[in-house]
Design brief:
Elements (H helix, E strand, L loop, with lengths): L5 H4 L8 H10 L9 E11 L5 E12 L6 E12 L1 E3 L8 E3 L5 E3 L4 E3 L2 E11 L5 E12 L2 E14 L4 E14 L8 E17 L2 E14 L7 E4 L2 E4 L5 E15 L3 E12 L4 E13 L3 E12 L8 E2 L15 E15 L2 E14 L28 E13 L1
């Protein structure tokens, strides 16, 4: 059985934020120059407890076509996904055999995950006076999911180059195709974004932005279940979801050739999930060829209104997906770049994230799930308890 878990992993932004790149060039007192490059990147993502593993290979071509023709970006991605993912079933004290073929006692039931994904993205931008419009097209295909997207955005520079108004619109038209049946279930979304970047001075840059995404269609997870009494029923969620976010970012350049980048993001949706993210990253140049970048990220969220580990009776909407539970996490990362030769840069990084669920439960005997008749003195646990390790290695050639 395949699982859709890796899509949560893929949410992370693979592109460097333009405002940071432009801002650091300004803070460093250097004019940004158009330059083409090719990036090759390998990423390894591993969850604890034999859960999801992802090996990703990515090729990025950034081609500067000159002032008259603009800039084109082409991204090609291949993901190999394996491991297992929690089904949402309640852990019991009985020895059971999961879909992964392993026997466990008191552990969360897991479903085997073995999938491949190929994806591509094309973006084109060209400057027209004070405007830099960009058109973006994307496509992705895996065993049980097909994703198609398009976007249009613009960056409008004003106030003598000190301020930039950036705004955009994007749409996706996806198909969920569970391997357990022959259904083709549509999932669509429309997103809006608006933001303002301001250069405060030679050493400081700030950005404030907001985004809203409306999803509709099939939003269930086809391989997730919920424990209702001693039985399990399929995960079922509302067929619409509105997600809103506010993002505040700031960068400060230090005279010793370092820069501190910070961001705070507030998120809420109409499923009652609210989240806070604080991210701190520091870039320090070591001589002419080395750049060292430590990072700290703190995250916390509340649970969806229909989330539950176990229910006594069915509800219109219900899910035991740990990604909709109440949990918090801490991520520590360290990356470095080394200029091997003029225009040739080696990049390496490692990050470790520790997550802990706040909805703690204890395993029960299979005949007493959903009742209060069992007594268990062991430790409580959560399917959100997880350690994630990400390793990256890349090579960039500027020409």
């Amino acid at each position: 059985m395949a699982a859709t878990e890796p899509r949560n992993f893929r949410v992370r932004n693979r592109r460097t934020m333009p405002w940071v790149m432009a801002g650091l060039a300004a803070l460093g007192g250097r004019a940004a120059q158009g330059q083409s490059r090719v990036d090759l990147l390998t990423l390894s993502y591993d969850e604890s407890g034999g859960r999801t593993k992802v090996l990703e290979e990515m090729v990025l071509l950034h081609q500067d076509l000159g002032d008259a023709l603009g800039v084109a970006d082409v991204t090609l991605i291949h993901d190999s996904i394996s491991g297992a993912s929690p089904t949402g079933g309640y852990p019991t004290l009985d020895v059971t055999t999961s879909a992964s073929g392993t026997k466990s006692r008191g552990a969360f039931p897991l479903a085997r995950d073995n999938n491949h994904r190929n994806a591509g993205d094309f973006a084109y931008s060209r400057k027209f006076g004070a405007h830099l419009p960009t058109v973006d097209l994307s496509y992705g295909k895996e065993d049980d999911y097909e994703a198609r997207g398009a976007g249009l955005s613009d960056a409008w520079t004003m106030a003598g180059g000190r301020g930039t108004l950036h705004y955009g619109l994007s749409e996706s038209d996806d198909l969920v195709e569970p391997v357990t049946n022959r259904l083709h279930l549509p999932r669509k979304s429309v997103s809006y974004a608006l933001g303002w970047t301001w250069i405060l001075g030679p050493d400081d840059l700030v950005d404030v932005s907001a985004s809203s995404t409306h999803l509709h269609g099939y939003l269930d997870e086809p391989y997730k279940v919920v424990q209702v009494g001693d039985a399990t029923v399929p995960d079922h969620r509302p067929d619409t979801r509105t997600r809103d976010a506010l993002l505040f970012k700031a960068a400060h350049y230090f005279s010793w050739n370092g820069a501190l980048k910070s961001s705070y993001r507030y998120y809420k949706d109409d499923w009652a999930v609210k989240a806070h993210t604080l991210d701190l990253a520091y870039d320090q140049h070591l001589g002419m060829d080395w750049l060292l970048s430590p990072e700290l990220r703190l995250y916390t969220q509340t649970a969806a209104s229909f989330y539950a580990d176990v229910l006594a009776a069915p509800r219109p909407y219900l899910s035991s997906d740990y990604r909709l539970s109440s949990f918090s996490s801490v991520m520590l990362g360290l990356s470095s770049t080394w200029e091997l030769a003029d225009g040739l840069v080696l990049k390496a990084g490692a990050a470790r994230e520790m997550a802990r669920g706040r909805d703690r439960i204890t395993p029960l005997s299979s005949g007493t799930v959903g009742t209060a008749s069992a007594v268990y003195s062991g430790p409580s646990s959560s399917s959100a308890d997880l350690t994630k390790t990400t390793l990256t290695l890349g090579l960039s050639w500027r020409y």
